[in-house]
Amino acid sequence: MNFNVLTIFPEIFSVLNTGVLSKELGKSFFIDCYDIRKHAVNKHGQIDSKPYGGGEGMVMMPKPLKNSLKDIPKSKAGHVIYLSPQGKKLNQTKVVELSKKKSITLICGRYEGIDQRFIDSYVDEEISIGDFVISGGEFAAVCLIDAVARNIPGAIGNKDSVLNDTFSNGLLKGHVYTRPEKFEEIEVPEVLLSGNHSKIKDWNTLNSLIQTKLRRPDLLNRVKLTKKQKKLLEEWESKDIL
């Protein structure tokens, strides 16, 4: 899979050279950064200007963006995404959908945004990573690339790690524990030490449901629970069995 990134700060993406996904960078997926300033409108490297109609800040001009987009071979441009607070909020369903595409081009905005005419003419989709403001689209693009790349076949050695991630089934992941068995007088739940795989599976399923209900009850309204999940949750609601 190819990720093309239009940015004025290509060095930010060096962070993706670290961590578990870095081993597959250049194998399962590729990242090519295109510096928008190479198509600046003057020798001073200008790629932005004051907004028409007044207002604070600067707006990225459409021509440098268009010319940067033209640098990408047509066969590699693929689905064009503008990282924007006005976009649809990114979630795991969208991440999995994007992971099935051959190529994605990410437009990283700065300042007060980019000229709407470029968006209307060249952008397929606007995506937001949340209801908050960050300094530029680069940080949102890094999040999106990391999330999408995890779901590319072969990118993560143990595919079950991805299948069991939080949000993979629409729910939060439950509590996890490791050694030692006792930490500051707090013991690991006995069932996890029992070796009874059926009971452990039920415990993990219920714990996931409980954490979702307590922390993100909105998610339960979007998920169709199985009969087993409904039964476990109903039993817990009638009596705290954890």
From TrEMBL:
Catalytic activity, as annotated: guanosine(37) in tRNA + S-adenosyl-L-methionine = N(1)-methylguanosine(37) in tRNA + S-adenosyl-L-homocysteine + H(+)
InterPro entries (UniProt xref): Alpha/beta_knot_MTases, tRNA_m1G_MeTrfase_C_sf, tRNA_m1G_MeTrfase_TrmD, tRNA_m1G_MTases_N, tRNA_MeTrfase_TRMD/TRM10
Keyword S-adenosyl-L-methionine attached: yes
Keywords: Cytoplasm, Methyltransferase, S-adenosyl-L-methionine, Transferase, tRNA processing
Chief localization: cytoplasm
Enzyme class, first EC level, given as a word: transferase
EC number, as in UniProt: 2.1.1.228
Molecular function as annotated in GO: tRNA (guanine(37)-N1)-methyltransferase activity
HAMAP family tied to this protein: TrmD (MF_00605)
Oligomer and partners: Homodimer.
Family: Belongs to the RNA methyltransferase TrmD family.
Protein name: tRNA (guanine-N(1)-)-methyltransferase
The species this protein was found in: SAR86 cluster bacterium
